[in-house]
Design brief:
- The protein has 2 domains: 151 residues, ATPase, nucleotide binding domain (Nucleotidyltransferase, domain 5), CATH 3.30.420; 158 residues, 2-Layer Sandwich (Nucleotidyltransferase, domain 5).
- It is of the alpha/beta class.
- A hairpin with a 4-residue loop joins strand 1 and strand 2.
- The chain has a 5-stranded mixed β-sheet with strand order 3-2-1-4-5, sandwiched between helices.
- Bound molecules: magnesium ion (MG).
- Magnesium ion binds next to helix 3.
């Protein structure tokens, strides 16, 4: 079967096409927010402006037209309401216009499933790290449960917020990662509570120190990332020993960070478990993963009625067992 997937939860509008689990196309158009942060209305405007172009590129690079599509899949949440609504409206329109079945997909679930597929690791412990989320996940009876998570902000939000505070032109984790290269360690608050994490004290302290002239921003960027990643590794390691899992995957936007990958790889090696991470393309927000996960869910549960296809801005992965009842 051929599935078209639409992603629009935050800064990225992406449409991908998957045929029987294989990615045929994955067109990604990310809104550049500069230093002003993610303003919902501007994200929605961007997504509606590029929607038609991204759709036609996704179809043409897969050498297909809409008639050949068997299923419309869309990211249903969690996400920012305004941009999310654009993708949902687009999906509903295509489903009605071309008389196709439709299915809403939980965004973290899609990151997890495409990562399992591309790393070939079966039933691993999952570390999901992104702008809005930081969670340790495990699958039980076909559904994911959250073993531990951030008690305040997502790790990506921590990096973006600090990048904005020190006025980086491109206030994004990737720019902070570049700045951090060669930095020296400064002690910052380290807060782990069992399998849960707390990042806001770390952000506040870093912001306070950033106005001092004797500490270079490079050192703070380095120390902020080292501290946050060490905290994340600690909870992942504890969860590995508690669950006795033989593999760990990391996924989500922040999983692209090479330093985090290096720390997790080392921790897994010492723990004697396999480590896996998908190519960057699938850790960015992307439509192909939504198509891939949509196909899996459709085969298990069938399609949704259009009335159930509304955005769910706070849609947690552990709510999926209420949305999909077997
Ligand atoms: Mg994401």
């Amino acid at each position: 079967m051929i599935t078209l997937g639409i992603e629009s939860t935050a800064h990225t509008l992406s449409i991908g096409i998957v045929k029987d689990g294989n990615v045929l196309s994955n067109i990604i158009d990310m809104y550049y927010a500069g230093n002003e942060g993610l303003i919902p209305r501007k994200l929605a405007d961007h997504h509606s402006e590029v929607f038609a172009k991204v759709l036609s590129q996704a179809l043409s690079s897969a050498l297909l037209n809409m008639k050949k599509i068997d299923l419309i899949s869309f990211s249903q949440g969690p996400g920012i309401g305004a941009p999310l609504s654009v993708g949902v409206a687009g999906a509903k329109y295509l489903a009605i216009r071309y008389k196709k079945p439709i299915i809403g997909v939980n965004h973290p679930y899609a990151h997890v499933k495409i990562s399992e597929h591309s790393t070939k690791l079966n039933n691993p412990l999952v570390l999901y790290v992104s702008g809005g989320n930081t969670q340790i996940l495990v699958e039980r009876n076909g559904h994911y449960i959250v073993l531990g998570e951030t008690l305040d902000i997502g790790i990506g939000n921590l990096f973006d917020s600090f990048a904005r505070a020190i006025k980086l032109k491109h206030a994004h984790g990737s720019a902070l990662e570049a700045l951090a290269k060669g930095g020296k360690y400064v002690e910052l608050p380290y807060t782990v509570k069992g399998l849960n994490l707390v990042f806001s004290g770390l952000l506040t302290k870093s912001e306070q120190l950033s106005v001092r002239t004797d500490i270079p921003h490079k050192d703070l960027a380095y120390s902020l990332m080292e501290t946050a990643f060490s905290m994340t590794c600690e909870v992942a390691e504890r969860a590995l020993f508690l669950t006795n899992k033989k593999s760990l995957i990391v996924c989500g936007g922040v999983a692209q960070n090479k330093r985090l990958q290096q720390m997790l790889r080392l921790m897994c090696k010492e723990a004697g478990v396999n480590f896996g991470v998908a190519p960057d393309e699938f850790n960015r927000d992307n439509g192909a993963m939504i198509a891939y996960a949509g196909e899996l869910l459709y085969k298990k549960y069938g399609g949704m009625v259009i009335e159930d296809c509304d955005p769910m801005t706070n849609y947690r992965i552990d709510q999926m067992n209420f949305v999909f009842r077997s």
